[in-house]
Amino acid sequence: MMNNSAVEISQLRVRRGKTHVFDGIDLTIPRGEITGLLGPSGCGKTTLMRSIVGVQRIASGEVTVLGHPGGSRQLRDRVAYGTQGAAVYGDLSVRQNLAYLAALLKAPKRDVDRVLDEVGLRPQADQLVDSLSGGQEIRVSLALALIGSPELVVLDEPTVGLDPVLRTELWGLFRELADRGVTLIVSSHVMDEALRCDRLLLMRDGRIIADTTPAALLEDTGTADPEAAFLTLIERDRQLSGDTRRSRREQREEGSE
To answer: Which domain covers residue 230, as residue numbers?
Structure first.
């Protein structure tokens, strides 16, 4: 693996029953940047993230993370995964949840206070998670992902359901982490969050239809906002897919003559 690559994916194929979720994805994600994974619900964002962290069964292909196969034991304390929703113990306090994971990862005890401050949960540290608001529970999940100072943090829609102020605060934290050299992969279906990323992977129907930057996306599509840009790319993709299908049909018809 190249030194500046956090993730390299080659010909990744994932099936769900008889359905092909991915049919040969190639992808490289650089270190020390925020890579935004954007697209509508059901486009494959979560499956791709699960493949990167090693919890998704794949049909074929290679996923290399920080120089090791995805899910390897060597990556246990180097990769963090924040799932959709709050993956926490509701009958424990915020601090107890964090301390438990810190003990499992053999992380420094001071990490608990560090991440409480980073996600703004110090006042709720001794509250049971079940007593928190939905947004606070999401912040607990994010705090868990930051225990142990991982090199790669994979976050599946971490800002869903949060108010604009808290979303802005969390993106500020993501930027601080990237500035410290942490690689972040953040999925979202909220298009305005695209402008907060260093790099963008836009997905549709299990395919990556654009690998670009925020500035290049707007310039390429001639639009003023990322939502309009994404809609433009979808229309291009539809036209390209239609042209490809027509070409294949014409070739079959010519071959049968």
So the answer is: 5-78+150-256
37, 186 Cβ separation under 8 angstroms: yes
Tokens of 135: 């947004």
pLDDT, one tens digit per residue, over 60-88 is: 999 999 999 999 999 988 999 988 766 78
Phi-psi region of 214 (alpha: psi -120 to 50; beta: other; left: phi over 0): alpha
Between 188 and 59, where is the model more confident? 59
Per-residue tokens: 154: 């994979």
CATH number at residue 227: 3.40.50.300
Instruction: Examine the pLDDT at 227 and tell me if it is beyond 90.
Output: no
Q: Higher confidence at residue 94 or residue 39?
A: 94
Question: CA–CA separation, 203 vs 39, rounded Å?
Answer: 5
**Element counts in the chain: helices (H) and strands (E):** 7, 10
- Counting the structural domains of the chain, the total is 1
Backbone angles phi, psi at 151, to 5 degrees: -85, -30
